[in-house]
Amino acid sequence: MNGIALSYLLLAAQMGLYAVLWTLTAWLVRSERLTCLLGAAYSLCWAAALVLFARRGVLDPWLCYTGADILVLCGFTLLWGRAYRFDRGRFPLLRWLTITLLAALLLAWVGPSLTQSHLRLLLLALFSGISGFLMICYSARPLSQQVGAPLSGLLSLLGLLAILVWGQRILMAQSLPLPSQDIPSQSHPNLVALLVVWLLTTGLQLGQFFMVVLRNTRKLNELSLRDSLTQLLNRRGFETHWQAQTDPQRALLLIDVDHFKQVNDHHGHDTGDRLLCHLAHLLQHHMGTPAILARVGGEEFAILLPGEDLANAHARAEYLRSQIAASPLVCELGILRITVSIGVASGRGSSLAELLKQADLALYLAKRRGRNCVACQQELAAQLN
C-alpha cells in the first residue's frame, strides 16, 4: 500500500470520528437532532468512499469506482440537504432523493470502465458542483444571522473557491493517461486532490459545528432571559436591556393585575396562566416598539419606555389601562374581566433600582385608590407633601 492510499485511509478514519461526534451532538442537542444526524450520514458516506478510493486496484471496480463515486455524491447532496434543514427547518427529502437517484443511475450507466473515466469524472464534477453551490446558498442566511454579512460573504467565497479547486482536480484528470486516473497513484493531481479533500472536509466540519454550537448557545442565552410562560423578558432580561439603553431619559411602568389571587382561587391556576398570557399579548399589541416589556413577578409586569418623560408615560399608561379593561378573557367558565393598577416613574440618568422603587410606591398608591387606575411619582410626592 503506497502513501496516498494510506493517507486516504487515515482521512477516512478522521471522517469516521466526525460521524461519531455528530451522533453524540445529536443526542445532546435535541433541537438540532436531524441536522446533526445528517452531518453524521455525510461523514459516513465520505469515510466509506475514501476507504474505497484507497482500495482501487484491489477490490472489484464496480465497488471501488462506481460505488465510491456514488457515496461521494451522496455526501455532497446530504451537505446541501443539511444546509437546507439548518436554514429552513425541514429536510427536502423529495428533492434530495431525485438528485441522488439521478446521479446514481447515471454513474451506474457509465460504469467503472477506465475507457469511460472522462464521462464519469464529468458527472462527478457536475453533481458535486451543483450540490456544493446549493449548500453555500442555503448556508448564507444562517451564517449572516450568526456572524454578520461581511464574514458570511467571506466564508461563502472560500467555499466557492474550494468547490472550484475540487472540480478543477476532477477535470485535470481528463487530460491524464487513463492509468494515472487511479486515485491511489502517487501523481501530482492526486496529491492536490488529497490536500483539497482534507481542507474541504475539515473546514466544512468545523464550520458546521461552529454554526450549530453558536445557534444553540444563543438559544440558551435567549431562554435564560425569557419568561417561559408569557415569552416576555424576565427580570434578568429586563435588566440586560436596561443596561443596553443609551438614552438617559427613561420612563418605567409597573403593572399589577388586580385581584389575581381570586382568579387562581376561583378559576384555577390554569386560568390564571391563561390570563397572564392574554395580558402579555395585550401589552405587546398596545405598546409596540421601542417599549421593552417584562414579567418581573408572579402577576407583575414592567415596561421600559426609552426617551419618554413623565407626562407622556402617564398618558400611555392610562391608554393601556383602558384597553386592558375593555379586553376581557373568554374562558370555559365565561367572560373574565381584567383590570390592572399601574405605577409610573420617570427620570434622567436614574438607575433601574431607583425607578423601580418610585414606580412601586406609585403602584401602591394606585391600589389604595381602589385599583384599576394609574398613579405616578409626581402624585405620590404631592400626597406626601
UniProtKB/TrEMBL annotation:
Reaction(s) the record says it catalyses: 2 GTP = 3',3'-c-di-GMP + 2 diphosphate
EC number: 2.7.7.65
Enzyme class: transferase
Pfam families: GGDEF
InterPro entries attached to this UniProt entry: Diguanylate_Cyclase, GGDEF_dom, Nucleotide_cyclase, Rev_trsase/Diguanyl_cyclase
UniProt GO MF annotations: diguanylate cyclase activity
Transmembrane regions: 6-29, 36-56, 62-81, 93-112, 118-139, 151-171, 191-214
Record-linked NCBIfam families: GGDEF
Classification via PANTHER family: DIGUANYLATE CYCLASE DGCM-RELATED, REGULATORY COMPONENTS OF SENSORY TRANSDUCTION SYSTEM
Name of the protein: diguanylate cyclase
Naturally occurring in which organism (per UniProt): Aeromonas bivalvium
